[in-house]
Amino acid sequence: xxxxxxxxxxxxTIAGTDSSGGAGIQADLKxxxxxxxxxxxVHVALTAQNTTGVxxxxxPPPEFIEQQLRSVLDDVDIKxxxxxxxxDAKSIxxxxxxxxxxxxxxxxxxxxxxxxxxCVSTSGHTLLQADAVEVMIKELFPLTYLLTPNKSEAxxxxxxxxxxxxxxxxxDMLRAADDLLKLGPQAILLKGGHLTVSMRDVERITLSNxxxxxxxxxxxxxxxxxxxxxxxxxxxxxxxxxxxRAPSGTTLFARPRVNSTSxxxxxxxxxxxxxxxxxxxxxxxxATREATMYIHLGIETAVPIGKGYGxxxxxxxxxxxxxxxxxxxxxxPFTRLLIQGTAGIWKEYVEHQFVKQLAQGxxxxxxxxxxxxxxxxxxxxxxxxxxxxxxxxxTFPSIKSATDTIINVITEVETHKAFCAQWGITEAELLAxxxxxxxxxxxxxxxDVGLQGDTSKLIMACAACLLGYGEVGLWLKKxxxxxxxxxxxxxxxxxxxxxxYGGEHYQNAVRVGxxxxxxxxxxxxxxxVRFEEWKGIWERCTRLEKGFWDMAINLA
Amino acid sequence: xxxxxxxxxxxxTIAGTDSSGGAGIQADLKxxxxxxxxxxxVHVALTAQNTTGVxxxxxPPPEFIEQQLRSVLDDVDIKxxxxxxxxDAKSIxxxxxxxxxxxxxxxxxxxxxxxxxxCVSTSGHTLLQADAVEVMIKELFPLTYLLTPNKSEAxxxxxxxxxxxxxxxxxDMLRAADDLLKLGPQAILLKGGHLTVSMRDVERITLSNxxxxxxxxxxxxxxxxxxxxxxxxxxxxxxxxxxxRAPSGTTLFARPRVNSTSxxxxxxxxxxxxxxxxxxxxxxxxATREATMYIHLGIETAVPIGKGYGxxxxxxxxxxxxxxxxxxxxxxPFTRLLIQGTAGIWKEYVEHQFVKQLAQGxxxxxxxxxxxxxxxxxxxxxxxxxxxxxxxxxTFPSIKSATDTIINVITEVETHKAFCAQWGITEAELLAxxxxxxxxxxxxxxxDVGLQGDTSKLIMACAACLLGYGEVGLWLKKxxxxxxxxxxxxxxxxxxxxxxYGGEHYQNAVRVGxxxxxxxxxxxxxxxVRFEEWKGIWERCTRLEKGFWDMAINLA
Lengths: 556, 556
Hints:
The structure is a homodimer of 556-residue chains.
Chain A: H1 3-7, E1 10-16, H2 24-34, E2 38-50, E3 53-58, H3 62-75, E4 78-83, H4 89-102, E5 113-115, H5 132-140, E6 146-147, H6 151-160, H7 170-181, E7 187-190, H8 199-208, E8 213-216, E9 239-246, E10 249-256, H9 266-279, H10 284-300, E11 318-320, H11 333-341, H12 343-350, H13 353-360, H14 365-392, H15 396-422, H16 427-432, H17 437-452, H18 455-481, H19 495-502, H20 504-523, H21 528-554
Parallel strand pairs in A: 1-2, 1-4, 4-5, 5-6, 6-7, 8-10
Antiparallel strand pairs in A: 2-3, 7-9, 9-10
Helix pairs in contact in A: 2-9, 3-4, 4-5, 6-7, 9-10, 12-21, 14-15, 14-17, 14-18, 14-21, 17-18, 17-21, 18-19, 18-20, 18-21
């Protein structure tokens, strides 16, 4: 399968519109999008419609329907498709003609065609002319993989062929599904939303038909006593049962009945969801279980829209990413969001007076000495934080990565001691230095986050230090390279410090750090709550970093 | 704002279709859905179209366009709308007539109308007849909040009014945006995708126009040196600049240029995204920044579809929920998924031989004694796990909740000791009992998860014990209530144990436990990776619980 087909299989609807957006092609495209499928659509008819009824219908000529189908099929690799409102016999013939031309005539079978035999709108408007029903049965059903009638549509189709039509019980549904199968489709999903049944009925029918499979969604599932809501007589509770008659056998899909007026477009949405699930390679049973739950939750989570029967909620299964996908032009979206989201305090940190004075060579010697002494004490916390990270890690690579950082810090401490010696500070003096509150605050916060959170939080806590010094190093390097720069490099006692943080060695560590947090955010896209937690830790540490340099400047 | 308007503001597109799904109304509906807005659509024209070109156009009569608009506006509270392909003068007049009737004539202004003045398709097909341009300017522009022309559309509109038309530089864009504003819209977003410019041009124009604001998306943002990809001459890199001329001033929106053929439907998608952002109450500047980034990422993450200029990816910002929303019929979706996802091992746990023999009164006395001794040792780990949870908690209610559980366990241990005494086990014997490997494995695993993970993982680790014993208690209670039950209550030495776990006190704790993990999954919807981590811990603990009863049966 190509990348596009695996990520976003292309599907198509051949149907009518609903201007108000709850049913028809609009519902199909919304459902396709909610299933992350790529949707194409062929317009057989337009309706001026809303939640109170259908006000007008306009149908383009059959030739134009044919041309739309050709345009799609010439260009897009359709994995599954559906038909909805087909309006009249001419339109059906146009659709069948093109499907045969592109598939049957070329020796291929039509990819999963779900036929929703829409005949009458909920509000009673005729959406399929009388003479068209027989054309649909004769010409379209043989190409159909799955037919999805409701009670009245099934009754209409059966009566057309003088089969016993009336459907009033589960037994009637089983018989009707069997009979509908004789009309040509490979499988039948007879929808039971217009029938009132209970689990008692399901138990009765499975007793006399032991080969029946039953899928109970949110209903009396095994070993879930703790989730059953106490009811006086659960077996008589009203439920909805759909019957799937497939070559692999017959399955009843039972779920609780929802009392709701938000049912506009339920049939369109169900068949569109089935198309997406089939396009992804699900079995017809799995596709049905998932699609029926999708509409069930769509009805139950609907928000009120319109004055009549409102649409179901097509978007209940979606969340919007807090961190965009990484792309070539934006390879580090998470770090970018962190910096953007804390721009003020981040600027105060990386363009701190301490840094500016240091770069100009005007930083008082005692401030720098205070800083490097406290930095020594801070590094001990920092090493311990990575030791805690190693202890919290669950793979050898992540244990090694954290351990490498500890080793790096220990090596850095040796360099640090040599550096301090140049400034006249002995090791004994370093060890005897009392810890400033700013150092304790920052160091203890790292370990507290490490105790409280998972590895991701601890990684976030350690990031502000690593990335901030990297930013300072690069900024000073860039500024120093400008003509007549304010950065003093000749005879600046702090030049080595600047060179270290702007240098390749440290910048490599920064790159690894950025890749680590980006990989984390892409692999486990954070919810808004989790994103705020991560950003909160980043911001706290940015503030503590600023506080560290405040401390150095103020000799606090 | 009503619940629906806040959660899913209703928006409308008045435009033409693209059967292949990448542009037009299809792109609009996909964009609306990706922005979690409720979309309605009025079809002005249908096209048979694909990524290689437009093959045919069909337009319904103006009266039918009017009726579609009436159907929507009579029923749905539209917060913002857009126009796309309007095809001809008659259609435009029909749209304007209805908008005036429903808004201007009633003394209300049209809610945020974004007019995308589509004239010619990318492939060169005329989508707006020549005489219609003037009608659009004269009649539709006065109702327009934001006009979004590209270079050629702007040139066409300006030449129509004998204004200087040619747009070849940023300076031309500023002048053109000013001139277009005179044609009636309240704001102009002049799109720069067809112009080649660089940051050097932006710097030049901001020098001579210091009042200009510049929004740089993924470009040279301040204090982000660590994210700049090294380039020989970044200032001359090709970028895209859109110019927004609004009452509040002029803003340039700069972003990297993406070399891609996946640009079919970019204009439609941009205006649809603007509509959603305006409907949510964003300023026009914020709406533009977000919408331009949406199409930028849409182009960059596009998957190949069709043979020509493929569509952008409308779904890059979406993820599908791992745990469904909680609803009235399914108040505990997370717990349900956990049990469903580990059904086999869960059943082996809650219907364990130990439990069955206990319920029948046939469990050997030494097995039960071994069990309650080890249970005593396990409870010590369990109390410590909650102590760790308290230490990891960040609010007083969560600290209290964990502490309450410790107290409950300590109280339970007293009862446990009394219970053991009834079975002839002294406290000294309890303390001297060597710990079985199954006890150590389970207890130490709890503390290990507690060390490794955040509070959510520790809560998951403690859930299998709480919920499993609850399930056993309810199951045995239900089975005992059946006529001729296999559960023996009369003279069963283990009756009290069954009564305890089926009783109100313990079941209350189970309910609180379920609510806790459900609230956790709803507040911080887990990514697929995180969901699998949670489920993995649940499964491990289920297995360890089963191992605990194996140990009791085998006296291991």
